[in-house]
Amino acid sequence: MYRVLIIGSGQLGSRHLQAVASLPFVETIDVVDPRSEGLTLGRQRLKEITDLQPHIRFNWLARLEDAQLDGDLCVIATQAEGRYALVEKAATLGYRRFLLEKIVTQSVAAYDRLLALARDKRLSIWVNCKSRAHPIWKHVKARIEPDESVLYSSIGGNHGLANNGVHMADLFVFFTGTTDIGSAGSRIDSVLHATKRGQFDLSGTLQASTDKGSHFTLSYASDHVESPVDVVMTRRYRWVVDQMKRQAFEGVASEGWELRPIPFEGNLSVSHMTKAFASDILQQGKCELPTLAECYPAHRFVLTELLPVFNRLLGKNDDQCPVT
Predict the structure, then answer these.
(1) Is this structure's pTM higher than 0.85?
(2) Closest of 92, 62, 66, 87 to residue 77, by C-alpha
(3) Long-range CB contacts for residues 297-300, cutoff 8 Å, separation at least 24
(4) Element (H, E) at 207
(5) What is the per-residue DSSP string for 23-83?
(6) What is the pLDDT of residues 28-72, one digit of tens each?
(7) What's 101's DSSP letter?
């Protein structure tokens, strides 16, 4: 039987809570949120699920210091600001396995510090860039040869070059197997888009490339929020995917590139996918999410591209992107 700590019980944290609360081999869940409304939302969300395990003991806490020691998994679903301090404090409580919400940190320097902490304390950390585990993207990845260059574009309405962009940039890393993606030029709108969590995001276009000839384009319009369409192409295959509409098409060079529908399978909700991730981490010590190190290239690219624009628009000069 396992013990789990969940830090942050807001819109995402409460979904992680639903997932973990459905696992029969979990014994205790500590839910930490200094906001009473966060704890209330967590309690409400537990009433929504049909597979809640009745034997699980829940501890609803306002302070991390009151959490149980030496648990088996810590899920951190707070805002990115202060993420390093939370991991460090949970590590002092004896936690060694973590699932972190993205964006992991607000700066590349803070991410570097977190990587160093993970090495020093021998922590196993995964990042909830869950697109890698979507069946449709696993299908695409399986058909890309290791030596092939990849063209990947994600184009749509404004879903945030930071918040959503990290997912897409991580998919580009996943498709290409690269450990380094470099800027290929960006045109970012001079507009700050306020987010629900009191932070900001940006629209416009980011472009990246690898030294093996792969290219990535992420382009979000500033005046609407329509769902994006993703296109992936190699010399032998091409795919067109609308994740929001759950539609996917595949074309093959040997068949004249005719696009044919392919199955779009799987429940992609956080409450469902975290159930599999947490189960695998607890029972096998691994899962399909990218590790902290594997997710670093996507974060470094996105944060580095966006920082100068944030600094200019906000009249500041630091290394922090005000994103979450």
Answers:
(1) yes
(2) 87
(3) 297/169, 297/170, 297/173, 297/178, 297/179, 297/180, 297/181, 298/129, 298/166, 298/169, 298/170, 298/172, 298/173, 298/181, 299/102, 299/103, 299/104, 299/105, 299/108, 299/111, 299/166, 299/169, 300/108, 300/111
(4) strand 204-209
(5) -TTEEEEEEE-SSHHHHHHHHHHHTT-S---TT-EEEEES-GGGSPSS-SEEEE-S-STTH
(6) 999 999 999 999 999 999 999 999 999 999 999 999 999 999 999
(7) P
